[in-house]
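A favour, since you know our structure tokens better than I do. Just paste the record in under my message, thanks.
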Amino acid sequence: MKNAGIIVPALIILTGALFFLGRPSVVSTTAVPSAPITPKSGGELLAISAGEFTMGRASGRLDETPHSVAVAAFLLDKTPITQDVFERVMGTAANHSKHKGKQYPVEQITWFNAIHFCNQCSEIDGLAPCYDPKTGACNFEASGYRLPTEAEWEYACRAGTKTRFSSGDDDAALIQSGWCKLNSGGATHPVAQKRPNAWGLFDMHGNVWQWCNDFYAEDYYAKSPHETPRGPSDGKRRVLRGGAWDCPPERCTASYRYNETANFADVCYGGFDCYGIRRARRLPNPGDAAIQANPTATTPTVPPVSTEPSAPQKPMLAPSANPGKFEAAGLRGTLVFASNRSGVLKIWSMRANGKEAKQLTTGDTPDADPRFSPDGKTILYTTLRGGFPEVWAMKRDGSESHAITKGMQAAWSPDGASIVFIRDNQTFVRELESGKEHRVTPDAWQRCGVPAWSPDGKQIAVASRHLDTIGIFLLSVDGSKSEALKTGDASCTPTWSHNGTRLLCQTVQGHVFQLDRDGKNWEQITFGADLQHDARYSPDGTMVIFARAPAVDGPWQISVQKLGDDDGAYITLTTEGSNLQPDWNADE
């Protein structure tokens, strides 16, 4: 305690100085790093003094209209929240990050995950929580942690600059200050490895998107108040800022605005491994014992977190109680699917009866999304190269594999002359002979996936999250026309019947449904307490093949069920490893 006489006066001096800087009318002309403030909950916060700046960018998108904004002083995390800090606050089981590491940013975080984390940190530090955990309403006068407003985030990111990035205007400047698609190698990286901005903040560009408190509205800048704007009063999507490891430079600028539903996780997309968090809070009072103005503070003490391993995953549900309706031995044709049974996700084939499983792709890189060509001789698939997806093709025996284009989740046109695929969350069509490509989805459709080409060649079905929730949309091949498929629930993973009159899809709850092309006759196909996904029609159209699992992360097993079976009886073809994304060809 011999340093207590130093720490408390330092806190009073810091707080007193920030009080005068806290008024928006005081303009900050120079961004200068402050002494880190170390709370009991973990991490380090820096003081961002008050100031005025031009928010947005004249040469940016329509929602980036430049306007003048004044921001009061506040505290902001020096780096995105790491998995070490997150686990010590929320517990190890709450960390669903894909790219594991104590100093890696926590990701796969929804907006509601983020505010619950903020509230928990407030409790640990003896502060008043800001958020109503049920509604998400924020009390800005509370002493606890919250997400930064969009204006606070951009002001802190720019740190007095007017360039695209806080480090400059060109892509080389971004590489100095952030991890993006150009240099990330297809994954997140430990925080604070790149150059900080003038405030001393790391990873404001790239690595992971950072949730803001604000609702998103494209036209908000036109009516934004000058003093301490806090976004629209309501909405259905929240703002994310900064870009991420998988983003091109234009999405990592200081002004780029992204948005997502507050609780985006579902069976269709699951978590998203580029959404992270950085806390903000109002200036502390001199009496806040939970905050120390001490850059050499010892490791913060938090309530102990259990280090016991998570409970083992529950086994697959038993096959149907009515197994006598049909037998696997009677199934004909060849299946291709993705499986991790060899230790890494690879493309496999086997007879439709579940026999003669054979690994088709090799190497250390994951492969997935196999699809037979219309003549059954070629297989499209997605592979990771340098951490990013590419569309490849091979013969059905696994030979002559070769790259086609950057992208993923490719599907064939009915004549086999073109493919439809996803690149940077948009849908593209590529002519295989000429190599010509064109985009099908509008720019506003920011998250698209699992495209499927109609048998008549006139439409492409694709899942998209550009509205309030995920849905399936039918687009003309040239992208000039689009319509929402009228599913009975939020759905994804569309698949056409062989005659093009019906489609299979999967709801966010994890069941397979069938409906007519015009949206009529919505019919549930699969049942059970587990999850069902990746449904495809059998070659004769009388059955569906799909993957089912007890949880989103598996283990997935491939099953077959007859259409029109009111009992929902099915047979399971695989037991080894986790197997998903099946496709079925009539030839053996």
